[in-house]
Amino acid sequence: MPLLPRLARAVLPPLLALWIGAQALGAWSGWRIALDGQREHADLIARAYATVLDQGAAPAAAAPRLALPQGMSVAIFENERLALTLPDTAASATRTLARAPWRSADGARQGEVVVGALPLAPPPALWHAAGLLLLLGVAAAAWLLWNLRAGRRRWQAGPVARLAEHVRQAGSQAAAGDERGDFGAVHSALDERDAQHQRQLAERDERIAALENEARYDAVTRLMNRRVFFDVFRNALRAPGQGNPAGHVLIFRQRDMAEINRHMHHEATDQWLRLTATHLSQTLSSNGGVGSMLARINGSDFAALLPDGSGRAARELAEHIRRELRLRRLPLKTGQWCRWALALTAYRANEQVGTVLARLDHALMRAEISNSDELQLADDSSATRVDGEYSWQDILVRALEEHRFFLRRETRRDTLGNVMHYKATLWLRDPGATEPIHSSQFMPPASRLGLAADCDIQSVRLALDQQVGAPGELAVQLAPASLDQPSFRQRLRRLLEDRPALARRLVLEIDAHGLVDYFEGVQALCEIAASAGARVGVRRLSEQFAALERLHQLPLAYLKIGGSFVHSLAASPGNRHLAATVAQTARTLGVPAYAQHAPDQAIRELLGSLGFVVLEAEEINESTLHALDDEDEIEAAPPAADTLAVHAPAADGAGAGSGEAALPAWPLSGSGVSRKRQEQADQRLSELAGALQAQRQMHSLLSHELRTPAATISAAAQSLETILAGSGQEVDSRLARIRRAVTRMIDMLDTVLSPQRQHDQALTPRPESCDLGELVRETAASIQPDTAHLLVVNTEPHVPVLCDPLLTGLVLRNLIQNAIKYSPADKSIQIDAGLSSGAHGALAWLAVTDQGSGIDEADAEQIFEPHFRRAAHRETPGSGLGLHLARQICISQGGSLTVQTQPGQGARFVIALPTPAAAGRRG
């Protein structure tokens, strides 16, 4: 503190105190002097009054002669009684100032004079002095209180300041123990608290660092985790000023991670993953460029973000990573090495993350089905589907249910133009796609979803159908995932054994990877093929040379190589030696060795010198693809009159048209035996009547019980349409399908189970005049949204017919659905309707023509027998009752149902029904 304030604080308080004291002393002295003077004056007054009274005057008589005192009161007592008070209205005395006795004439004590002080106002000087003292006193008290408070603060702040300084200097020896004084314990407690606080801060920092590491890094590999990778990836997609493409994403998956975890300790697996991640990080840091990042997005999937837009650099880096992964593979208990699947795709600015990941997932599916570690490039062109796994499942299941598959036949020729064999490629028609989907797109997801075997069965079935009337051998590719399924092999055996003549011209082509991975399944497949006369070929042998050591154990049709292996023959002596080994193995087995994808004439000559048959580029065999378009096939002409009349009922109503004998007349009751028989017949009729009544009651019950769930489904479908409005075309199409099916079911219930038909027998028609062409168009329009086949309707302007529209519609729907089942999805179905004249007058006819494999002549009539199923179509669901019931319905309406067919050329089912005019003449 400066000297002057300190001097002022030291001198002014004593001086002020002395001055106040002097003022107070002066005031008190003046007050005492005044009191003493008043007391002396009162004493004089008391003696003067006593003297007057001593002269013998009575107090009341002496009152006029007594002077009035100033500021005093006089009380005169006589014989101890108050006799007189002066002044009369004086206030009561505050204190007694003087006393004087007075006596009578004889000298006896008569009474006493008492002088008291009256309350008087102090003089102005005293008031001034008192006010000044009061003010000084208040100021002094305030100053004293302020100083006491400040002193107390200083007294308290001193140790606290020293403690604060000690805390600031914690850990040093600046504050010695003797300087702490009485606060030594507090200093120690603060030291301990500070140390504890420092430990808590350190622990908190460690936890924060651990949480940050956990939130950003994978716990095992120390790579960036999924969340960080996708955050960076989204920012990269939103970054402005990027080229086209903006960068690439590489995903690689360890396909055998579950097997590794089952047979290795977790510590060993974690160490292997850490070591692999370390080497890959070094590779990416050295070659990936600025902004590249490696991350582990789940247990078996890793991803690398390559912001560099160069596709060549990305492919080279991906190939480098593939080699690193191959060097660090682990052996499995099966004797094989663990497998990696790699996929690379380019991304563009403002592209959606889900779109990029869907492309990568589809490429990973292709890598998995190829069973190799070759890099799969995910093309982002419009031809490549990017549906997710669940969408693929819906597409494939629907295609299997609705027979949406078809085959395209391609010719395989050698360099001289000779036909070696034909190749069948499976395609799928999806209502959500404008173009058919190639098997290379839907078989990878089918393999992952466990539907590859069902797709392969469809492929083999369609191939057998296509071989009817087609020349040469047809090769059908089978997915590796199907080879290990016993149920697939059983179904394949039935297909081949049911059609042995066609199976002998069928080649089942398998992948070399499947031969290594599922050797026992391939052995079983070869046995099935050999017993049925079919053969087995091996393709992509150049991608899995480990299959060479097992080829001698199998009866094979051919070996085939291709791809990048063939492209590199000229520059790689090692590949030439391997190719020569394959050719020599084929010669040893006595089978041809094929090579495809030869880029130039030099490679073709090299392959020819090694013993390979070089295949030219595959081309679609247009003559086979459009074989059913020729004019010499089944013509869409009306059936002949005699053919239409074959199954028409006889005009005399004898029942011959229905194929049943006329019932004999009831016997006459002329004897006891006849009466007994009559009683038995009556009893039997009663039983039949009771059974018929019970059947009618059941009919009514079914009519009621089936309407309730149908109405519930209809209401639920309407609610879903409201809830899911705007959810996309896929949802809308499925809801529309539900609505159509429910509407059709309710219409059938309203018609078939109506009260009007309650007393009708089964399949009893209710004929009415209608337009057959309109019925055909309505039925085809209701079926078309749920099928991949094109329904082509060709009817005359007006085709009058007398029939039951409901039953005739059921027959037509059955025929169309059969045509869908047994025709490839790329073939159309022709539906014609018209009028023709016959032996019994004009007839209305309609025909359903498919382009399937046709029907053998031996089966042409048996297909109308109940529960008859052709052996060739066991894999197609059905009960064998549809055509039988359809013919019965046509016959019950006075018409017929016949078939015109030729193997390999499809089938044509013709319905003939009477016209209203012909029925009137017949009646």
UniProtKB/TrEMBL annotation:
Taxonomy, superkingdom: Bacteria
Protein name: histidine kinase
Domain EAL residue range list: 389-637
Keyword terms, alphabetized: ATP-binding, Kinase, Nucleotide-binding, Phosphoprotein, Transferase, Two-component regulatory system
UniProt GO BP: osmosensory signaling via phosphorelay pathway
SMART domains noted in UniProt: EAL, GGDEF, HATPase_c, HisKA
Molecular function per GO: ATP binding; phosphorelay response regulator activity; phosphorelay sensor kinase activity; protein kinase activator activity
Disordered: annotated segments: 650-684
Pfam families according to UniProt: EAL (PF00563), GGDEF (PF00990), HATPase_c (PF02518), HisKA (PF00512)
Domain GGDEF: start-end pairs: 245-380
Transferase in keyword set: yes
UniProt biased composition (Low complexity): 650-665
Domain Histidine kinase span(s) in chain numbering: 701-917
InterPro entries reported in the protein's UniProt record: BphY/WalK/GraS-like, EAL_dom, EAL_sf, GGDEF_dom, HATPase_C_sf, HATPase_dom, His_kinase_dom, HisK_dim/P_dom
Keyword hit for Transport: no
Catalytic activity entry: ATP + protein L-histidine = ADP + protein N-phospho-L-histidine
EC top class named in words: transferase
EC identifiers of the protein: 2.7.13.3
